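Homework help board

Subject: predicted structure for assignment chain

Our instructor gave us this sequence and asked us to write out the predicted structure in token form, then describe one feature. I got the tokens but I'm not sure how to describe them. Can anyone check?
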Amino acid sequence: MDRSGGATVELLIPFETSGLKIDAVKFRPFVWDYELLWREGRFVSSLALLSAMTGMPEATIRMIRRPDIERVFAVMSILVPEAIRDAMATGQWPVPQEQEDAPSGGSEPIADHASPEAAAAHNAQFSLDDDLAQDAAE
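My token output:
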């Protein structure tokens, strides 16, 4: 973990996708918004949460090889609150809440980010400070 509350996992086995070399997975700090979204049932899988925490599309995360994927999830488990870590370990995902009064676009589950741009746009929407928004845009 770094001083910002995030972390970086240097991959033992880097790979390329869409002409980009992926040699590390950089985690943003776990902000309270992620926990709120979790409680609302908006993350449909651990990959969706990992995608939000890193800004990487799920398709890219799926390309990470062993033993790197275990190392990435180990760091993720350190960054998430204990209650979320325990729920993920036992497969207890919150059920999405029905939100009749939710603003348009505010209640869809967060599944997959089809592109780095989509991931960045989503994460910028829910950022709590300017530094996180700048990281998401990169």
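Reply (TA_rk): Your tokens look well-formed. For the description, you could write something like this. The CA atoms of residues 12 and 68 lie 6 Å apart. That's the kind of observation they're looking for.
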